[in-house]
Amino acid sequence: MDVISEALDKIGYLSLPHIGIRDIIDILVVAFFIYKVLMWIKDTRTWALLKGVVIIIVVAVVAFVFQLHTVSWIISNAITLGAIAVLVLFQPELRRALEQIGRGNLLGSILSTEEGMIEGLLDETVEAIVKASVQMGKVKTGALIVIEQETKLGDVERTGIPIDAVVSSQLLINIFEKNTPLHDGAVIISHNRVSAATCFLPLSDSLEISKDLGTRHRAAIGVSEVTDALVVVVSEETGHISFVKNGKIRRGLDGEGLRRILGSSKRRKKHERKMMLWKGKQKNE
């Protein structure tokens, strides 16, 4: 009888617990979170860190199995110091991750209001940016144009000189003209107006940036990594036009290519705005 009861206890211990709807939702949420974290890590330099952590875990398991007490002691103490070192060394990546979470669709839909919705680029603004970029590219005049999206660029604007003028190709060309007081730095376009010039942008510290790109392109990539801004760059050395978004750069664009990119962004914003207005209307009804 003791043997039978013991066997039944083991079977009961090994049996699967009851899984309800809440448990399934809990598992799916955790799996989705882990997937998103892994996808974010894969696109950053923390991917190498993750591989290093996996190696340390493997070494720790081997040390535990073979009773390597000295190795286990070193690893256990290194993990404590390593956690602090990770926070210090990868502070930019952690900050960027939190900013991306704050710009996510879920939080954005909860925190956004109709007054806070951005105004999409007007056709006149797109044409002014394209025309100015092409003209400056022909004469190799360096330019850095940042177009504000949902993330406000007030901190960046305060580093420059306020302008608050209608966007025109003549104004942009005149601002970036060499040896003029406003040519050094970036221009910020907000709500279809030139809000500030000579603004300083954060430089990207990514090691994947091509070595033939200078400070202007690195600044464009840097501001696009920490915000959702659209950035247009005209190279002073080659006159080539580039477009930067979310840390990704597209080089060698012509006027039509730049117009198509800015136009598609404008259409996407219009679609999002219509959806928000439609949801608000349905809610009121």
UniProtKB/TrEMBL annotation:
InterPro entries: C-di-AMP_synthase, CdaA, CdaA_N, DisA, DNA_integrity_DisA_N_sf, DNA_integrity_scan_DisA_N. GO terms for biological process: cAMP biosynthetic process. The chain crosses the membrane at residues 24-41, 48-66, 72-90. It is an enzyme of class 2 (transferase). It comes from the Bacteria. It holds the Pfam family CdaA_N. Belongs to the adenylate cyclase family. DacA/CdaA subfamily. Probably a homodimer. Catalyzes the condensation of 2 ATP molecules into cyclic di-AMP (c-di-AMP), a second messenger used to regulate differing processes in different bacteria. This is Diadenylate cyclase.
